[in-house]
Design goal:
- This protein has about 425 residues and is mainly alpha-helical.
- About 50% of the residues lie in helices and about 5% in strands.
- The chain contains 18 helices and six strands.
- It has helices spanning about 35-40, 75-80, 85-90, 100-110, 115-125, 130-145, 155-180, 195-205, 215-225, 235-245, 250-260, 270-280, 285-295, 315-330, 335-350, 350-355, 365-375, 380-400; strands at about 1-10, 15-20, 30, 60, 65-70, 70-75.
- Helix 6 (about 130-145) packs antiparallel against helix 7 (about 155-180).
- The chain is globular and about 75 Å long.
- It starts with a strand and ends in a 28-residue tail after the last helix.
- It binds carboxymethyl coenzyme *A.
- Carboxymethyl coenzyme *A binds near residues 357 and 362.
Length: about 425
C-alpha cells in the first residue's frame, strides 16, 4: 500500500519518493527511481536498512522478540502444530483443513524416495566429507534426476518440485549421515510421520527393529517448525537471487544450502556446541566472556546475537524448553554442556557489553545440546537446519516467481578501484 511520500535533497535536486506501508512493521521508502532521477545509488553494505522485496510469509519484530508465520505466533505453532502443517501454512498462506492436511501429507509421503542412481552418487564422496558438502552437491544434483519439474513457468512443475524437495531432504540428509558412519542406507517407511521417518532413516539398522521414541520425534518436529522460515535472511536472499535469474528450483535451494553452511548463519549451531565443549566447565566462562569482549580477539560467543533480534530470540526460549524435555526423556540428569550453557547465558545476560549491544541467546545456543543428546553428531546440525528451512526457501522462491513485478536481482556498487588506465607490456612495467 502506498501512502504519503518522502522528499530527498540530492545536490540541490529534490526527489519525491513514495512510502510503502506494510500491515505491521516498518514502512519502506521506494527508491527504485532514485538512480534515474539523480544518477546516484544508495549504499547499504549487509543490507541493514534495505528491504529487498515485498513478502506475505514471515514477520519478525526484532525489538519485541516476535516471530509470526503467516500471522501465527511461532509459540502457538510450536506448541499445537506439526511440521508438515507448518509447511502447508508457509506454502499456501492458510492452515489446512483436515482433508487438505491429509492430502498434503500424502503428497509429501509419495515423494520420499530418491532415484536409486543417487546411491551411486554418494559413493563418489570420501567417508569423512562434511555432510553439508554432500547436501550442497546432492540437492543441486536433483535437477539432473527430475527433469520433469524444472520448468519454472509451469505452476504444476513448480508444485511437484516443491513437494519433491520437502519430501526428499530428510532422505538425503539421513543418507549423508549413514554414509559418513559406514552404515547401509535405510529406505523411507511411509506409514511413519515425517519426523519419525527421518529419525528411523538416521538411526535404524537392518539387523534390528527400531522403535521411534515419540517424545524425541515430537521434539525434533518442533525444532523443524522453529527453523522453517525466517524472513529475508542470508540463505533465503541467496535463494531469491539465484531464482531471479530463472534458475531451476533444485539449483536455487542448493545455493541456499551453501549459504546456510557459514558459521555466522546455519553453521552457528555446530560452532556453539564446539564452543561449549571448548569452555568445558563453568569456571572457564569468564575467560571466554573476556575474549568475546576483546576487540583484538576475533572470538565471538556463538549462539549469541542476531542481525534482527535485539531481544531474546523467541525460538531460543522454546528451544531451551525442548532441551530440558529431551534430556529428561533420555534420563540425562547432569549434562556438563547444559550446565556451561545455562551459566554462560546468565553471566552474559548480566554483562554490560552484552546488554549494551543487545546480544541475547539465539536459537542456535541450545539446539546443539538437544541434537547431540538425540544422537546426532555436530556435523549434522546444519544439515537438520537445511532440512527444516527448505520449506521456507521454497515458499519465498514461489512467492517471488509468482510476483508479476519480479525482475532479475542485480545490486549495484560503489566502485573504489583504479580509474581507467592503459595496458603496459611486461617490458614497460619497470
Ligand atoms: N559475541 C561477541 N560480540 C558480538 C557477538 C557475539 N556473538 N555478536 C555481535 N557482537 C558484537 C560485534 O563485535 C559488534 O561490536 P562493535 O559494534 O563493537 O563492532 C556488535 O556486537 C554488532 O555486531 P555485528 O557483527 O555488526 O552484528 P551483525 O548484525 O552483523 O551480526 C551475527 C549478527 C548473528 C552474525 C552476530 O551476532 C554473530 O556473529 N553471532 C555469532 C554467530 C551466531 O550465533 N549466529 C547465528 C544467528 S541465528 C541463526 C541464523 O539465523 O542463522
Amino acid at each position: 500500500m502506498d501512502s504519503k511520500s518522502s522528499t530527498l535533497n540530492v545536490d540541490g535536486t529534490s526527489v519525491e519518493m513514495s512510502i510503502k506501508r506494510g500491515t505491521i512493521g516498518p514502512s519502506v521508502i521506494d527508491i527504485s527511481k532514485l538512480y534515474g532521477q539523480t544518477g546516484m545509488f544508495t549504499y547499504d553494505p549487509g543490507f541493514t536498512s534495505t528491504a529487498s522485496c515485498e513478502s506475505k510469509i514471515t514477520y519478525i519484530d526484532g525489538d519485541e522478540g516476535v516471530l509470526l508465520y503467516r500471522g501465527y505466533p511461532i509459540e502457538q505453532l510450536a506448541e499445537h502444530g506439526d511440521f508438515l502443517e507448518t509447511c502447508y501454512l508457509l506454502l499456501y498462506g492458510e492452515l489446512p483443513t483436515a482433508a487438505q492436511k491429509a492430502d498434503f501429507d500424502y503428497r509429501v509421503t509419495r515423494h520420499t524416495m530418491v532415484h536409486d542412481q543417487m546411491n551411486r552418487f554418494f559413493q563418489g564422496f570420501r567417508r569423512d566429507a562434511h555432510p553439508m558438502a554432500i547436501m550442497v552437491a546432492c540437492v543441486g544434483a536433483l535437477s539432473a534426476f527430475y527433469h520433469d519439474s524444472t520448468d519454472i513457468s509451469d505452476p504444476h512443475q513448480r508444485m511437484v518440485a516443491s513437494m519433491r524437495m520437502i519430501a526428499k531432504m530428510p532422505t538425503l540428509a539421513a543418507m549423508a549421515y549413514k554414509y559418513s558412519i559406514g552404515q547401509p542406507f535405510i529406505y523411507p517407511k511411509n506409514d511413519l510421520d515425517y519426523t519419525s521417518n527421518f529419525l528411523r532413516m538416521c538411526f535404524a539398522v537392518p539387523a534390528e527393529e527400531y522403535r521411534v521414541n515419540p517424545v524425541l520425534s515430537r521434539a525434533l518436529d518442533r525444532i523443524f517448525i522453529l527453523h522453517a522460515d525466517h524472513e529475508q535472511n542470508a540463505s533465503t536472499s541467496t535463494v531469491r537471487l539465484a531464482g531471479s535469474s530463472g534458475a531451476n528450483p533444485f539449483a536455487c535451494i542448493a545455493a541456499g544450502v551453501a549459504c546456510l553452511w557459514g558459521p555466522a548463519h546455519g553453521g552457528a549451531n555446530e560452532a556453539a556446541l564446539k564452543m561449549l565443549e571448548e569452555i568445558g566447565t563453568p569456571d572457564r566462562i569468564p575467560e571466554f566472556i573476556g575474549r568475546a569482549k576483546d576487540k583484538n580477539d576475533p572470538f565471538r560467543l556463538m549462539g549469541f546475537g542476531h542481525r534482527v533480534y535485539k531481544n531474546y530470540d523467541p525460538r531460543a526460549r522454546i528451544m531451551q524448553h525442548t532441551t530440558h524435555e529431551v534430556l529428561s526423556e533420555l534420563g540425562i540428569r547432569d549434562d556438563p554442556l547444559l550446565d556451561v550453557a545455562m551459566e554462560l547465558e546468565q553471566i552474559a545476560l548480566k554483562d554490560e557489553y552484552f546488554i549494551e549491544k543487545k546480544l541475547y541467546p539465539n536459537i542456535d545456543f541450545y539446539s546443539g545440546i538437544t541434537l547431540k543428546a538425540m544422537g546426532f553428531p555436530t556435523s549434522m546440525f546444519t544439515v537438520l537446519f537445511a532440512l527444516a528451512r527448505t520449506v521456507g526457501w521454497i515458499a519465498q522462491w514461489s512467492e517471488m516467481i509468482e510476483d508479476p513485478s519480479q525482475r532479475i536481482g542485480r545490486p549495484r556498487q560503489l566502485y573504489t578501484g583504479a580509474p581507467r588506465r592503459d595496458y603496459l607490456t611486461v617490458a614497460q612495467r619497470g
